[in-house]
Specification:
Helix content: 10-25%
Largest sheet: 2 strands, antiparallel
Shape: extended
Strand content: 5-15%
Order of helices and strands: EEEHE
Number of strands: 4
Number of helices: 1
Distance between the termini: 31 Å
Radius of gyration: 19 Å
C-alpha cells in the first residue's frame, strides 16, 4: 500500500517551464527540469579483460537519446569512471 499524501495548498508550478539563465556562463536552460545522474549498469563488463569493460550497449545509447528528446533543461551525466579497475559496484 502506498503512503498517504499530506494535504497542502495548491502551488503554481508554471515557473518550472520558464528558461533559467546561468549568470556565470551566460548559458540558458530551456526550462528548470533536471535529469539527475544515476548508474544505469547498461555497459559491458568482463571480469578479466579490461578492454571489454564499459562499452555502452545499444540500450544505453537509446536511453540517453530518449532523455535528450525529453526536453530537460539540464542533464547531469552519469557516473564516469576514470579507471577501468575502479567501476561502480
Amino acid at each position: 500500500m502506498s503512503p498517504l499524501r499530506y494535504e497542502s495548498d495548491g502551488t503554481d508550478a508554471s515557473s518550472l517551464g520558464q528558461p533559467l539563465k546561468f549568470e556565470f556562463s551566460g548559458k540558458i536552460a530551456q526550462n528548470r527540469f533536471l535529469k539527475a545522474a544515476m548508474t544505469e549498469r547498461m555497459s559491458s563488463w568482463d571480469p578479466r579483460d579490461f578492454e571489454k569493460r564499459g562499452i555502452p550497449s545499444k540500450e544505453l545509447i537509446n536511453v540517453y537519446k530518449r532523455w535528450g528528446e525529453g526536453g530537460f533543461g539540464q542533464s547531469m551525466i552519469s557516473c564516469l569512471c576514470k579507471l577501468r579497475t575502479n567501476l561502480v559496484g
